[in-house]
Amino acid sequence: MFSNRWRFGWDRYTEVDLFTDHNDTNAETLSQAIRAASEEPDADGSVLFGHLQGTVVGLRYYTGVVNSGEMVGLVRQPQNPYDRNAVMVANIYGNQVGHIKKELAAAMAYVMDNKLAKVEGVVHSGTKNKFTMPVMLSFWGKEEKKNTVIEMMARRGYKLNTGGIGQAAVFFFFQLKNAFDNLFEGLMESKDGEKEAAKSVGTPLLPHQKKALSWMCARENKSGLPPFWEKRGELYYNTLTCFSAKEIPERVRGGILADDMGLGKTLTTIALILTNFHNGKPLPVETCVSVTVLNLYFSITVWCEQHLFIIKWLFACYQEGQSSPLKARTKKQMPPKLEGIFISCLLFTLYAPGFQEDLDFAAALGGLISDTGFKKKKTSKKDLKARATLIICPLSVLSNWLDQFEQHVSANVKLNVYLYYGSDRNRSTKFLSSQDVVITTYNILSSDNGDKSPLHVVNWLRVVLDEGHIIRNPDTLMSKAVLRFKAQRRWILSGTPIQNSVKDLWMLLAFLHLKPFDVREWWNRVIQRPVTQGNKEGLQNLQTLVKCITLRRTKNSEVNGRPLVSLPEKTVCVEKVELSQAEREEYELARNEGRNTIGRYVSEGTVLSNYAHVLAILMRLRQLCCHPDLLAKTSTDLGAAATPAELRERLIEKLRMVLASGSDEECSVCLESVRLPVITHCAHVYCRPCIAQVISTEKETARCPLCRSEIKTSELVEFPQEEMGEENGTNSEKWRTSSKVQALMANLLRLRSEDNRIKCLVVSQFTRFLTILETPLREHGFSYVRLDGTMSLKKRTQVIQEFQSSADSSPVIMLLSLKAGGVGLNLTAASHVFLMDPAWNPATEEQCIDRCHRLGQKRKVCVTKFIVKDSVEENMVKIQKKKQDLLEKAFGSTNTDRKASRISDIKALMEL
DNA sequence: ACCGCCGGGTGCC
DNA sequence: ACCGCCGGGTGCC
């Protein structure tokens, strides 16, 4: 019988399958096939064409089983020797279940091979017999392919059931975003208790850091069931995919630490590395103490009679140790009886200077203590030899990691940290594996790609992705590289795990090997599509999933009723500024003019279609509040454009006007400040991805969210690249002051007279205003630096370093553009913040203030907001308050609400 | 495998 | 006996 297997090869002898355990090898290739099949371009714009009841045949030849309700994967098998149209059916873990019946397979093969549709299967009723079973197929694809596919299938006698397919509701990002904000909130409750860090961690941990450490250790050590798995009788059952397995599903060892910036993710990670080695023991590290002991041994043969026997014993052990494969470090725990001698030895070193180091002996001694003193438990399914933790971070924080290791690891502990960076980096895998920590950057990763890259050969104990949201795009080289690491434990550190949409999460879960969602198809079907279609259940599942693997605390979180971190007091005061006679006259003129125009729009009901103009009017007023010279000279009206080129020119001009001032223009789709701005033919500005999303969802019927004019992707106008970041020289022939400038200078001079080392942030949305402010600062001899969005990364870090320096010569003022820099910016050297002009979005202001009011701030922080009396600014502040209220109860607000509130905002601003 | 399909055996009722 | 019917053999692609 056994030989039949070979003789008959592909033949139909059932023995073949009974003898072969292809669960492992075949499942892997099938999984790969499914993965490959679903790694097609994003299925985002897909619509459901229809359903079809099909049949899976040949069940008896395969080992894969399917439960009622379980999803299955459909993979084309063009190489099948019996039928080149074959479509294989596999379960979630990639075990083959059977084939699609051949006539249906022939029809499907055409559709699948020509990428007309993606076909998905669900087995609704359980297996009635051993030979075939029904499968519900659904066809998904681009709207324009829909009819082709339906006709195609109909011609072969398969009528797609298109009934009951409702048009998916169009959900804008912000509605999801609200849900996401919630998604990552409150992930703190009832996690584990606190855990003390190993002794080698030199910095005492704060309570919330001990909690994080405890949670992280538990995530690495405990072997409970992963999310959505439960035990049902003898089987493990996945409640989402309805898949069940005999073996306990592999648990994700790791997760996402999504604490807010400044709560000490780095320190906690360092503590984790030192505290949780194999079997929950601390990382064995060399300590100077042990080295000293050996020095002693070699330097003095007879030192103290009462210790001689121990030294002899140690030496004996050392020799014995030579023959056993010992861990080459001193474990932190040592037998109590030895502690005495270690201390004695330490004391002795004070009297016996000039010893040579002998690391070999130290290493052996260390190994001996752990291996002979404490017998290791043989619990290892895992590779206990894995030692090194690989940390990948953006270049900008690399030095921070090195500093933090320096700072937080006890002085007497020697931790091997290798910086895998630069062209002469050590590529020896043996060397890398032997390190305690290897640090590298995402850039190195994308160049050090390929299977033979040293980073991909090493068996890591742990891989940590700092600022892990960097890999959210799965198409990048580094994302692909990150998935191929061999590691036992995987962590993602990120303050902002979701930036735009659910899609951002997939890469993170794939990196963590959260099965089955590491295969894109299952993720798309179970989470992404339900969620983007606004399915409550999908969102709930996502929430559960995230909750299981994420720890997130914000600066405002509380533990046992006490704030996580206590920051110095922060006071915010508003300083009302009176305009001068001349300024007031100019302002009133502009205001009346604008008020008339907007009033007309309001009564005509055309506010939203003239939105760009309304914004321009408001901008003009806001600029007048700061400084008369801020006014943009160019202000062409969008009249009837003669030619397309002319229209384009005018649109660009509009866009330039909105952007040039550096104001915080907000996209009406995502309600964030615009990224990659584009302007529509109706002159409304959006982020390109946001408006592209709207257009792709609504297709031909797409309309501008603000004015409902028809919009097309081809008609979106971008800002010409060469003009980006171009900063026109100020027309500073004759500089003049303004009331706001005066108010600021009065404050700065007063502060300097109190303490000339007080550092201030001076913040404006208008970069040109910052330029104007430079003149009086120079005149009064203030040393200042400037940070705005136009500066290169290198320049930025340099400026920040200068400003943060405590040297007497360091600048005391930073001119800061409101939007410049990421959230990570650390400007704790400043204790005073001057906000020169109110922002539309109060969160932007908060974020800016938080750059100095954050962990590390030692002084009280004083924030001054300058607001011009009787002006648009005062009204903006009122609306800000209202917006904040709205934001707090963010859920339930619909797009129409937002539009209505926008119109009423504008009316309020103009006091109409 | 409680079906369908195939092909050989068979042939009034 | 160029059909129908019966019953055994058989069975994914």
UniProtKB/TrEMBL annotation:
Helicase C-terminal domain boundaries: 750-902
One biological process term in Gene Ontology: DNA repair
Localisation per UniProt entry: Nucleus
Helicase ATP-binding domain span: 246-515
CDD domains: RING-HC_HLTF, SF2_C_SNF
Keyword Nucleotide-binding: yes
SMART domains named among the record's database cross-references: DEXDc, HELICc, HIRAN, RING
GO molecular function terms listed in the Swiss-Prot or TrEMBL record: ATP binding; ATP-dependent activity, acting on DNA; helicase activity; hydrolase activity, acting on acid anhydrides, in phosphorus-containing anhydrides; nucleic acid binding; zinc ion binding
Domain RING-type: 667-708
Main location group: nucleus
SUPFAM superfamilies in the record: P-loop containing nucleoside triphosphate hydrolases (SSF52540), RING/U-box (SSF57850)
GO CC list: nucleus
KW ATP-binding (keyword) present: yes
Pfam families: Helicase_C (PF00271), HIRAN (PF08797), SNF2-rel_dom (PF00176), zf-C3HC4_3 (PF13920)
InterPro entries attached to this UniProt entry: Helicase_ATP-bd, Helicase_C-like, HIRAN, P-loop_NTPase, SNF2-like_sf, SNF2/RAD54-like_C, SNF2_N, SNF2_RAD54_helicase_TF
Name recorded for this polypeptide: Helicase-like transcription factor
Gene: HLTF
